[in-house]
Write a structure and sequence with these properties.
605 residues; Immunoglobulin-like; Jelly Rolls
């Protein structure tokens, strides 16, 4: 996010009414285009200011209330941009805008019946709404024999639409040729191998995310969808599922192959690929090329990496394909080794942390990873698949391959987190380094496209995380605001912390607070912001980012005094805070996207 804005426009004596911004429609634009996008909500004042996390996406408020003008260059990488709107008195949450290389077409009603299906040329991206109960949207496309038609919906993932969509391919007579329900999370993805030249209809309908007791298709103003369709290349996902960079002291790992998602074609379609770089695509020197999994690949597919923003993780894309994939896996820092665990033979890991990836091609497949465990060291193995919207129902088993002794097994982190994780140590009394084997399987024998995962393996070290309940905060000039901060102490982290606010404007103060190693404050602290009545003769107004960070302290200092700005040095009665914070409060949006760049509004009374 860019820009610190202090507003000086006079407002009425009463606190100005806040606007609401619920979503963007259409939720996608095409690169190299200029398009009007509507912000659905309520705006008592217009225009507003717009912040975007991507400098290569230009967004400005139009003259018409609720309308934004979005401009992108022809070479803008695809992916996602996050927008925040603000005016003198309020700010919106972060709103997603998808960036596409294929033309974006808005639905035109009526398109419910087969004879009303809206014609589109492939490749295409269709955006629309299932606005009422029973709504069905159809799009007719022309295909030829031998082509593979791929359709993919983004609705619940990224856009947050409260819908469980179903996607079908049907012929002109309504015969269902292919159907998908939950393929990427609860969003569908359908693949159909065309047997003849024909006009086919891609049909979409949905059920409510939360069952209502009503039997039938659901709809509503928030049932927004984004539908990609092509008979050409489409990028589905990539391995590993974290940004493929390694600790530069180790050196690069050889690039992996770019392969087709069709297991029968994988062997003859594998080609070497390396990342290309431009000013927006800047992986470290020790980057490796990811392995791309998709549909309709040819031997020209080259992965490119779009650098992370304040909201988005790094994104991989292919210029000749539609689709992109975010490297959203929360892997450990400083990965020192990558590997592929596919085949019957174990893969050996010599250095940790490591990320190992695989895809199950057979229902009985067991992927094995071996490494040498040290006495007294606690290790963690964790799978990432369902978190990326993929299909592996993972099971992790740790064994001593020399004796066959099982040291642990897990198939779910929790009721709501279905990726497996396990912590383990060498058995008591074992004082010599010992080779252990981590086995990865699918609980129900799932295999084929989408049954892919990344596994990270690390020696556990104590860590701390900060969390907040919102990505934006608002205080009225002359008033106070309390911000609760969750302190998550992981794996025995027991050091007291000084929690402070950085980036406050003149006239706003915040007393830092200490999170002790035990007691209530070890889990949660509350920061109090105090906004002055006036600033330079006017009621204080401000719009801009702030950060909430934690520094380690020795626990003996008293509660600190308020500071005019959180960037000033904080006096201590014991050790000075570390030069770098150990954690920053992060707000999780969804699906691995989130931000530590929070937003503050100071509104006039």
């Amino acid at each position: 996010m860019v820009g610190l804005l202090a507003w000086s426009v006079s407002l009425p004596a009463a606190v100005a009414e806040e606007f609401t911004a619920d979503r963007l429609f259409p939720p996608a634009v095409t690169v190299g285009d200029e398009r009007t996008v509507t912000v659905e909500g309520k705006f008592p004042r217009w225009p507003v200011q717009v912040e975007c996390d991507r400098a290569d996406v230009s967004v400005t408020a139009s003259e018409t209330s609720g309308s934004l003008l979005v401009r992108t260059a022809a070479d803008t990488p695809p992916g996602i941009a996050w927008l925040r709107l603000h005016d003198e008195a309020s700010a919106s949450g972060l709103l997603p805008l998808l960036i596409e290389t294929a033309p974006v077409t808005s639905e035109v009603e009526p398109n419910d019946r087969l004879d009303q299906a809206q014609r589109v040329d492939l490749p295409a991206v269709m955006v629309g709404k299932l606005e009422k109960a029973g709504d069905v949207d159809g799009y007719v496309v022309s295909v030829t024999a031998g082509q593979r038609l791929v359709g993919r919906v983004t609705a619940n993932r990224l856009l947050g639409s409260p819908m469980d969509a179903v996607l079908q391919v049907v012929d002109r007579d309504g015969n269902v040729l292919a159907q998908s329900d939950d393929a990427r999370g609860i969003d569908p993805q359908v693949v159909y191998d065309c047997r003849a030249d024909a006009d086919l209809i891609i049909r979409l309908f949905a059920f409510p995310l939360v069952p209502t007791g009503t039997i039938g298709f659901a709809g509503g103003g928030d049932f927004v969808y984004h539908l990609q369709a092509t008979v050409g290349p489409l990028l589905d996902y990539a391995l590993p599922m974290t940004a493929p960079t390694i600790d530069p002291t180790i050196g690069p790992v050889p690039a992996k192959a770019v392969v087709d998602a069709d297991p029968d074609a994988a062997a003859d379609q594998a080609v070497a690929a390396e990342s290309s770089v431009d000013e927006r695509i800047a992986p470290p020197a020790a980057a490796i090329a990811p392995r791309l999994i998709g549909w309709n690949w040819d031997d020209t597919a080259e992965p490119r990496l779009l650098a992370a923003t304040s909201v988005s993780p790094p994104i991989v894309f292919v210029e000749a394909a539609i689709g992109w994939f975010p490297f959203a896996m929360p892997a450990p820092r400083g990965v020192r080794q990558f590997g592929d665990a596919e085949g019957a033979e174990p893969i050996g890991i010599s250095d940790l942390p490591a990320v190992i990836s695989g895809q199950f091609e057979q229902p009985t497949a067991v992927h094995r990873v071996r490494f040498t465990a040290q006495p007294g060291v606690k290790y963690r193995a964790r799978v990432y698949s369902r978190g990326a919207g993929l299909l592996v129902d993972s099971v992790l088993t740790v064994v001593d391959p020399a004796t066959g002794t099982q040291l642990g097994k897990n198939d779910d982190v929790s009721r709501n987190e279905r990726d497996a994780a396990i912590d383990f140590v060498l058995p008591g009394g074992n004082q010599t380094p010992t080779e252990l084997e981590v086995q990865v399987t699918d609980l129900v024998g799932g295999h084929g496209p989408g049954h892919a995962y990344s596994l990270w393996l690390e020696a556990i070290t104590p860590a701390v995380e900060l969390g907040v309940a919102a990505d934006r905060f608002r205080v009225v000039s002359g008033k106070e605001l309390e911000i609760p901060v969750d302190v998550r102490r992981l794996d025995g982290f027991a050091q007291p912390l000084r929690v402070v606010v950085e980036g406050l404007p003149d006239g706003v103060t915040a007393a830092a607070t200490v999170s002790e190693a035990s007691g209530d404050s070890s889990k949660k602290v509350t920061l109090k912001l105090v906004a002055a009545d006036v600033g330079e003769g006017e009621p204080l107004r401000f719009q801009g980012p702030l950060r909430i960070v934690a520094y380690p302290v020795d626990g003996s200092e008293a509660a600190p005094a308020a500071q005019d700005t959180a960037t000033e040095a904080v006096e201590t009665t014991a050790a000075e805070p570390a030069a770098e914070p150990v954690a920053a409060a992060r707000f999780e949006i969804r699906d691995g996207f989130g931000t530590a760049d929070l937003w503050l509004t100071v509104a006039a009374p």
